[in-house]
Write a structure and sequence with these properties.
binds guanosine-5'-monophosphate, 2 domains, binds manganese (II) ion, about 325 residues, alpha/beta, 11 helices, Diaminopimelate Epimerase, Chain A, domain 1, five-stranded parallel β-sheet, globular, inorganic pyrophosphatase (n-terminal core)
């Protein structure tokens, strides 16, 4: 599969690298890692994200970040999607094109002409690394930085479930290629926008505990977001902090926008929150899942999710 995918990529000249809407460090790192390898081999490459205003700026230190655009070129030979479990998360129109789908979500809908999906890998960056390794591709330093970023962003710096020796071994090889772990940690963690800090402060002073304090819930209304100057991207992963509270087994975040309620779920190793995201047509992993709900009030969505968690995940009476 890795050989076949690489053959397809080598045949193409004009290539578009697609990251998912409301991107994270894994999807961004993956497209940028591919970008430098393909560009150095003389290909014409476009970096695409449909929600450009929601690019998390902590990744702007990566070479090529400023080249990410929200327009597709008129002509191209091949699309490559990275870290995207379903076609609708790419934010593009369907059409008659070749697409290589590179991902690590078990819920991946295999929408590509070639699907390189590794549900046991902790990040898509690791799938890209394996693609390079299997095809003896030399990894330039800027791609190594991007891959290391993918790995640490999707594992919470090697601390989430799913992290294994492959993640550590790959990180070690990337360090041998010149990556500075300290530099990347400082860039990603030491660049928190003030609005995000304020949103966290609100979260920590306003969350609720339910079911004997086993579930922590936080809701961000449009008014709260406005008052701290935050948008959806600023809420990325902050919910993890609620999961860190002693006794909390599941954390739930709801965020209100004009069009829908965005829901994020996180759980400890004994609970599978992807069961809930599947019910709403979303996706993710056992311990980190998400979805969007349209045409409902945030309070009602919260009640609904807490009920579903109690009956389908926690199994409390
Ligand atoms: P987050 O809660 O950080 O947005 O996402 C957690 C995980 O669930 C990620 O792997 C993300 O790709 C996935 N996810 C979040 N929202 C959606 C969604 O609306 N649709 C799908 N298919 N996956 C989602
Ligand atoms: Mn990922």
């Amino acid at each position: 599969m890795y050989k076949e995918a690489w053959r397809k990529i080598k045949e193409a000249d004009r290539i578009v690298l697609l990251s998912h809407i409301y991107p994270d460090g894994d999807t961004i790192g993956s497209i940028l890692a591919l970008f430098w390898v393909l560009k150095n081999s003389g290909k014409r490459v476009t970096l695409f994200n449909a929600t450009k205003s929601e690019l998390p700026l902590e990744f702007k230190f990566l070479d090529g970040f400023s080249k990410i655009q929200d327009k597709l070129p008129n002509n191209f030979d091949l699309l490559i999607s990275c870290d995207c479990s379903s076609f609708d998360r790419l934010g593009i129109e369907g059409g008659d094109f070749e697409l290589v789908n590179i991902d690590h979500h078990k819920s991946n809908q295999k929408f590509g002409s070639i699907n390189l999906v590794e549900p046991n890998f902790s990040s898509t960056g690791l799938v890209i690394y394996r693609l390079f390794e299997e095809n003896r591709v030399k990894i330039p330093k800027n791609s190594a930085y991007a891959l290391y970023t993918s790995i640490v962003d999707d594992t919470g710096f090697f601390s989430y479930g799913g992290v294994d020796s492959f993640a550590f071994k790959t990180a070690s090889k990337l360090i041998d290629l010149g990556v500075s772990p300290e530099y990347i940690a400082r860039k990603i963690r030491g660049n928190e926008p003030l609005c995000r800090v304020r949103l966290r402060a609100y979260m920590l002073s306003s969350f609720d505990l339910r079911f004997d304090a086993s579930v922590a819930v936080i809701s961000f209304s449009k008014e709260v977001l406005k008052s701290v100057g935050a948008t959806r991207k600023d809420s990325k992963n902050i919910i993890h902090e609620l999961l860190n509270i002693a006794n909390v087994k599941i954390a739930v975040m709801l965020l209100e926008t004009d069009e829908y309620i965005k829901v994020s779920l996180r759980s400890d190793e004994n609970y599978d929150v992807s069961k809930i995201s599947e019910l709403y047509g979303g996706g993710g992993h056992k311990r980190a899942a998400g979805f969007e709900v349209a045409s409902k009030e945030m309070k009602d969505v919260e009640t609904e999710i807490l009920n579903l968690l109690s009956t389908k995940v926690l199994n409390v009476e």
